[in-house]
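Entry 14. Ran structure prediction on the chain below.
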Amino acid sequence: MKKLSQEEQNELLNILEQRFKKNPTRHPNIQWDDVLNKLINNDNALYNLFQMEETIGEPDVVELSNSEGKIFFIDCSSESPKGRRSICYDHEALESRKQYKPEDSAVNMANEMGIDLLNEDQYFQLQKFGDFDLKTSSWIKTSVDVRKNGGALFGDKRFGRVFIYHNGADSYYGARGFRGILELS
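Output, structure tokens:
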């Protein structure tokens, strides 16, 4: 695992703290000091968050229902993170393309970053805190039964509501990426 320099760590923590304070409705029952205490000696989490930030995910703490006592960072960029677009769903889908392969897949990128894709419930919960993916869409964690039939799920928000759709897992578009989630332990 790579470790951030002290300068990178300080800069990241400053960005995360400012974003946390700017968006209190995302985490009404969580205090920054509690988040900071979990981050301070957690090099893995700091590096994962650094990668989320570097790919324009704008990670912030989001208080999910039924997650009492847990702290989650979720990509809160208004649109699907720019540094994670034009990718298919997973490695199997990437390998199945004979031509015009994208550079990577959502599942692979998430694994390399040490984060997970949002699932459908988490995507719906995120949308309660703002308008996300009004012009883009984001791959979401897809069940095995959908995936084994060649499909994958993605979500977006249009006309004031959230939609979950399906597409071939090997498809990719310039406006589709993925949103990640990181649980602090």
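Strands lie at 59-61, 71-75, 116-117, 137-140, 151-158, 161-168, 176-178, 180-184. Will compare against last week's run tomorrow.
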